[in-house]
Design the sequence.
């Protein structure tokens, strides 16, 4: 499945009402560590049909970043059943990102 662009307008539909777990990457184009994590997140999206993967550009969606207390990027959040289930801040290797989903 491809990576979804998550905005304030589609957040409830794509994340909170999803029947699958959702991995959300809060990022910005100017962020070096975000550029390191982005290809890993894209790879996970391509490999896993059992989850939804989305990205939130914090420059374009500051309300979502504030709502979830995102102070540093990249921040990765995992939602299950509409509830925040896990969180990681900073660049992480793929195996650690996959662990967030379990």
Sequence:
């Amino acid at each position: 499945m491809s990576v979804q662009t998550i905005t304030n307008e589609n957040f409830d539909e794509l994340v909170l009402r999803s029947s699958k777990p959702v991995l959300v990457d809060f990022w910005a184009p100017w962020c070096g560590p975000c550029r390191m994590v982005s290809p890993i997140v894209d790879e996970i999206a391509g490999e896993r049909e059992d989850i939804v993967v989305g990205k939130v550009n914090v420059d374009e969606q500051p309300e979502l970043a504030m709502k979830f207390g995102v102070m540093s990027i990249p921040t990765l959040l995992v939602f299950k059943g509409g509830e925040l289930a896990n969180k990681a801040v900073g660049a992480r290797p793929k195996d650690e990102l996959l662990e967030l989903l379990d």
Q: What stands out?
A: The first strand starts at residue 4 and ends at 5. The chain has a mean pLDDT of 96.
